[in-house]
Amino acid sequence: MVQKAKILLVDDRPENLLALEAILSALDQTLVRASSGEEALKALLTDDFAVILLDVQMPGMDGFETAAHIKRRERTRDIPIIFLTAINHGPHHTFRGYAAGAVDYISKPFDPWVLRAKVSVFVELYMKNCQLREQASLLRLQLEGGRPSADEAKESAGLLAELSARLAAVEEQAEALSKQLDETADAAAVATAAHLERKLTGLRRALDALEPGSGSAAG
C-alpha cells in the first residue's frame, strides 16, 4: 500500500497555513505545518517531503535563508521548493528566489487551482520515485536470490508495466503544465519546466533500466 506524500507548509501566520491546508486538502496527502524556518528545518531532519511551500517574509530566519539551509543538506537538497510571497519587489527579488533554489515563485494572492495543480505534479513525481525505489529493491532481491520463478517474473513484469503507465500519465501532466507555464514567458516557466524535465528523464531512465533484457537488469 502506497503511503501518502508529505507536504511541508511554512508560514509564520496561522491564517495563511489554514488557507494553504484548505487549498491542498483535495490532494489527500499529509500536510505538515511549520511556523518558522527553524521549525521547518527541524521537521526536515526526520521526515521526507514531496514539496515545500515556503513563505518568504518571516521574522527571524526568512524564506531565503531557510531555503539556503535546505539546499546545503544532502538529505533535503533535491526537495522542490515553491516560494510564496505577499510582496513583489520586481525581477531582482524574484531572481533571488530562484538563486536560493526555488522551482517556482508565486505572489499572493494566488490562484488556488494553479497552486494545487503545481503541487500535485511534484507529489506525483515523488510518489513515482518511491514506487521505483521499491520495485528496484524487489528486483535486486530476486536477482540476488537466483533466477526468479515464472510467477515472480510475471509479477515483476506486471509491476513494471503499471509503473511505466503511471509515469507516462505524469509525463503527460507535466508536459501540459509546462505548456501552460510557457505562456507566461517568465523565469518561473523556465525553472519549473527544467526541474520537471530533469526529474522525469531520470525516472524514465531508471524504469527503462529495470526492464527485462536491459543492461542494468541483466547485470
From TrEMBL:
- Name the chain's protein: Response regulator
Q: Spell out which residues are annotated as carrying 4-aspartylphosphate.
A: D55
Q: Does the keyword section mention 4Fe-4S? A: no
Q: Where does the secretion signal sit in this chain?
A: none
InterPro entries membership? Bact_response_regulator, CheY-like_superfamily, Sig_transdc_resp-reg_receiver
PROSITE patterns on file: RESPONSE_REGULATORY (PS50110)
Any coiled-coil ranges, and where? 153-187
Task: List, for all copies, the residue spans of the domain called Response regulatory.
Answer: 6-123
- One Pfam family in the UniProt entry: Response_reg
Q: Which UniProt keywords apply?
A: Coiled coil, Phosphoprotein
Gene3D superfamilies found in the cross-reference section? 3.40.50.2300
